[in-house]
């Protein structure tokens, strides 16, 4: 069984933080394990305090539903199949870009959440973190 180690979480966060520095946007970066439990978090210098909770919830959402939060958000619009999902799970579900499931092979081993920039910035930063985990798969 594949698990998300602390070393994995640190590598993911380092790659995401590097990308955030490259785009010039300080963010919060959170990693949860397969059970949705917080494994690691960083708040870069200058990142919004209000984004701490959002990053953690994006990581949780991406793991809870094994889907990128950006994609869940597209399916959560009025007339779409998951409209209203953000009101479930005591408000923990986040439906905008920046959350990605972390996979090793076919197994989802956790989730990554990034918050503090635009949706596009958060997504590209999250994808940089995801890519480093896939390199070591």
UniProtKB/TrEMBL annotation:
Protein origin, superkingdom: Bacteria
**Could you tell me which InterPro entries the record lists for this protein?**
GlcG_carb_metab_protein, PduO/GlcC-like, PduO/GlcC-like_sf
Q: Write one Gene Ontology MF term.
A: transferase activity
One Pfam family it belongs to: HbpS-like
Q: Determine if Transferase is one of this entry's keywords.
A: yes
Q: Does the keyword Metal-binding apply?
A: no
Q: Which keywords belong to this entry?
A: Transferase
- Name it: Cobalamin adenosyltransferase
Organism source for this protein?
Mycobacterium dioxanotrophicus
Q: What is the lineage of its organism?
A: Bacteria, Bacillati, Actinomycetota, Actinomycetes, Mycobacteriales
């Amino acid at each position: 069984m594949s698990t998300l180690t602390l070393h994995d979480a640190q590598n993911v966060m380092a790659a995401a933080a590097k990308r955030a520095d490259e785009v010039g946007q300080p963010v919060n970066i959170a990693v949860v394990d397969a059970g949705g439990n917080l494994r690691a978090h960083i708040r870069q210098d200058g990142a919004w305090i209000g984004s701490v909770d959002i990053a953690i919830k994006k990581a949780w959402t991406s793991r809870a539903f094994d889907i990128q939060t950006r994609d869940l958000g597209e399916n959560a619009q009025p007339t779409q199949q998951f409209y209203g999902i953000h009101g479930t799970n005591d408000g923990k579900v986040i439906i905008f870009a920046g959350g990605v499931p972390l996979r090793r092979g076919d197994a989802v081993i956790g989730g990554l959440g990034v918050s503090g920039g635009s949706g596009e910035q958060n997504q590209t930063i999250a994808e940089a973190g995801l890519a480093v985990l896939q390199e070591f798969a």
